[in-house]
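@here heads up, posting the sequence + SMILES for the flavin mononucleotide run so it's all in one place. Ping me if the SMILES looks off, I pulled it from an old spreadsheet.
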Amino acid sequence: MPLYRLLYKSAFALRGDARSVNRQIDDIVADAALDNLRSDLSGALIASNGIFIQVLEGPLSAIEITFEKICSDLRHRHVELIELAPIDERLFAEWQMVRVDIRDEMLPLLRVFDIALNGLVDMSKTESILELMRSRLTTTAVTKPPAYDAPNEMNIAQIR
Ligand SMILES: Cc1cc2nc3c(=O)[nH]c(=O)nc-3n(C[C@H](O)[C@H](O)[C@H](O)COP(=O)(O)O)c2cc1C
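bot reply: prediction finished. Complex structure tokens:
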């Protein structure tokens, strides 16, 4: 089955303090991962500086159905399609949906996207943004400490 990739940008419409917004984003990603597993979609989500950038990849029909839902979701607004194109292979095959932490790189990234939305940028820029997202995921996977620290001799002793 031919594969497609969709990339869009939108603005948060989430209420609450930073902590609550952060939790809501984690919930969006966790729910999306479950739904995407059922629809054979993979992808990644950047959520930073009040902006979402999401990539979805998979069969065209599944992308279209999901993107329609996403567009009418009131948790964000100004959804702007950046790219919908056929692809040879998935870049995010390992992730049904995952949050990408890019922090400092968000502002330069948005500058590139604003140019893209004016039609002034070539698609090689889109490719490099996707590569940045992917490389950030693979490097975090290697360097990030485990979320759960398995008990070792030291903290078992403390528990006793
Ligand atoms: C930023 C953002 C990203 C989302 N990403 C996905 C996604 O990748 N897959 C998905 O199924 N729903 C995603 N959703 C949620 C959908 O908008 C929708 O709530 C969800 O598909 C449930 O639809 P349903 O009520 O028809 O089951 C996202 C929502 C937001 C705000």
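MO: The pocket of flavin mononucleotide is lined by residues 28, 32, 35-36, 43, 45, 52, 54, 56, 66, 69-70, 73, 75-76, 97 (CB under 6 Å).
MO: One more: The chain has a mean pLDDT of 84.
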